[in-house]
């Protein structure tokens, strides 16, 4: 049993990690051929499974550079479960895939502890995962992460563009900074065009760059799901790559456009810094970063204040950021209020 | 919208790929926030979702070296759905994650066409996926693949070690060569310790090395699932990393061991070559490669011949490879019949 280890794959280190993950996740069934999730269908008439897969992009390279691996797993879960939530579904369970060049158990434990934290925030269950040791695949210290979330919704309650009306209010839920998108541009601006140190703190930012850039992506399940259940939310856009323009466009029906009033919410200082340092056009900015809104929720006007208040009670920072107008699936960010 | 592209991420190339994948998979709903799968629960009393995630290890590096990317997606699906099947569940749907340094649409299309083929062989549905372009993450031409499968079973029909008895027969289903495990050792032996060309054909092998090594992993769903449905199969081990010893041990109860008669099935020529060239001990060989058996099925003796005949009718090559004996979860490979 030595040849495989000499070739760079340590199966026993893998087994040790599985034990560690079992303890972290408190799911002793991990490690069998497939993860089990009993379905409780009591209240579902026509259950639909809603699933999503995602990674965290090159935010990983910041975690690697900063040697801080405990929160990147939260980002991973967030990217997946917020997508599931955006369809109106309740996340049920999650699996993670970790690809490494050489298995470093302490680092892997840090990474998976973030996954466990994220799954807890999403009120879901970690049912499985794979840690793949792949010598020669990743350069030293690099790893990749992929996540998979499955949720459930009643077919009739899936959120749909069809239910949107002219005049519907757009509520923006504050992001926790950059979340997990645009990091190739971030790295290009800060570390290739310029030579910033991760220990620097940019003007207006509370944290030094390594902690600012690694702020974990917000998971909106706890605050938003109860309002979906009550039928108070009509549509949701999870703001990821492509920013407001592309992600909000995905929820619009043919006959409506979305109009945002720039200035009606707070744009994080890190993005203003990146725009300034990288001399980015506003077009670049809005198509790459979330501009401070991690999720945009469309609601009928008569429940807008109610929904806003409930979300705030759950701890969200919520802005009334715009409305739906007659149009053709355009996303307009009006800057005249600045 | 140019800054992000200059930083190495081409969002438009990504959109083009999504369109290509929609066409390949004939699933026009791909590209929304989450993949939808309506559950039809007519016949399930207590439905349990069974999920699995996996990658294909450094078999990827062979595909990259050979510049042949059309079948690696089959391996990906196989690694996941065979795990789901091994629990007694019917695979329902699949999602894939493809991480690349720079998005090459033609290569990505080849990769995903393999995924689509694998999903079809597994009688499942591709409901989503993610292609992540990550500059600086992967060295030139490298990519990683992760897959995620969800299946369903009735709780009472999940395969379980509890139903195994002394004297149960072990049927081995022929693998299609190496499948997706042990490739770091394969690469070490053939391309580091020695300098074989991918165009060479090793003694006893039908194909040259690139095609021999890239034979896609068998997907056993079509042949095995009908027998699970009929209640004729008691337990299944999907033979992956760790070989027969570790994967068969996972299905054994405390009081039983598995005894294999080496020589009762055909070991693929590629493995004999690897043992010879790499001077591997039998211990190394059996803990790293599948030895020619991609799946081991435990059945009660009175249905063994019946199950074997049905599997053969479905196109499988099936061997009676051993039996369960009283013991303590040991996997014994008896070589005295050689």
Automatic annotation (TrEMBL), chains A, B:
Residues 48-153 form the PurM-like N-terminal domain. InterPro entries: PurM-like_C_dom, PurM-like_C_sf, PurM-like_N, PurM-like_N_sf, PurM_cligase. It is found in: Cytoplasm. Its main location: cytoplasm. Its EC number is 6.3.3.1. The keyword Cytoplasm applies. GO terms for cellular component: cytosol. GO terms for biological process: 'de novo' IMP biosynthetic process; adenine biosynthetic process. Pathway: Purine metabolism; IMP biosynthesis via de novo pathway; 5-amino-1-(5-phospho-D-ribosyl)imidazole from N(2)-formyl-N(1)-(5-phospho-D-ribosyl)glycinamide: step 2/2. Pfam families: AIRS, AIRS_C. The keyword ATP-binding applies. Residues 165-332 form the PurM-like C-terminal domain. Belongs to the AIR synthase family. This is Phosphoribosylformylglycinamidine cyclo-ligase. It comes from Lentilactobacillus parabuchneri. The lineage of its organism: Bacteria, Bacillati, Bacillota, Bacilli, Lactobacillales. The gene is purM.
């Amino acid at each position: 049993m030595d040849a495989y280890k000499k070739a760079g794959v340590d199966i026993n280190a893998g087994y040790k990690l599985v034990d560690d993950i079992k303890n972290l996740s408190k799911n002793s069934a991990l490690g069998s051929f497939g993860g089990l999730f009993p379905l409780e269908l009591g209240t579902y008439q026509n259950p639909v499974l809603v699933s999503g897969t995602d990674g965290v992009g090159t935010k990983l390279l910041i975690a690697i550079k900063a040697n801080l691996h405990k929160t990147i797993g939260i980002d991973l879960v967030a990217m997946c479960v917020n997508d599931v939530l955006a369809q109106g579904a309740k996340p049920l369970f999650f699996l993670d895939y970790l690809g490494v060049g050489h298995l470093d158990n302490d680092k892997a434990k840090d990474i998976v502890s973030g996954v466990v934290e994220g799954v807890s925030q999403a009120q879901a269950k970690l049912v499985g995962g794979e840690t793949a040791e792949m010598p020669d695949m990743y350069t030293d210290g690099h790893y990749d992460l992929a996540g998979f979330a499955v949720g459930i919704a009643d077919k009739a309650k899936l959120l749909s563009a069809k239910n949107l009306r002219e005049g519907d209010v757009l509520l923006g839920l504050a992001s926790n900074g950059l979340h997990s998108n645009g990091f190739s541009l971030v790295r290009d601006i800060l570390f290739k065009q310029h030579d910033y140190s991760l220990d620097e703190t940019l003007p207006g930012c509370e944290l030094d760059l390594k902690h600012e850039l690694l702020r974990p992506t917000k998971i909106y399940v706890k605050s938003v799901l109860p309002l979906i259940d009550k039928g108070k939310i009509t549509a949701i856009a999870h703001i990821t790559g492509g920013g407001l323009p592309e992600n909000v466009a995905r929820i619009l029906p043919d006959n409506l456009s979305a109009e945002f009033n720039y200035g009606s919410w707070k744009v994080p200082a890190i993005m203003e810094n990146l725009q300034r340092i990288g001399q980015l056009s506003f077009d670049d900015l809005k198509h790459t970063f979330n501009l401070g809104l991690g999720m945009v929720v469309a609601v009928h006007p008569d429940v807008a204040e109610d929904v806003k208040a409930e979300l705030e009670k759950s701890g969200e920072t919520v802005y009334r950021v715009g409305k739906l107008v007659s149009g053709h699936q355009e996303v307009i960010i009006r800057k005249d209020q600045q």
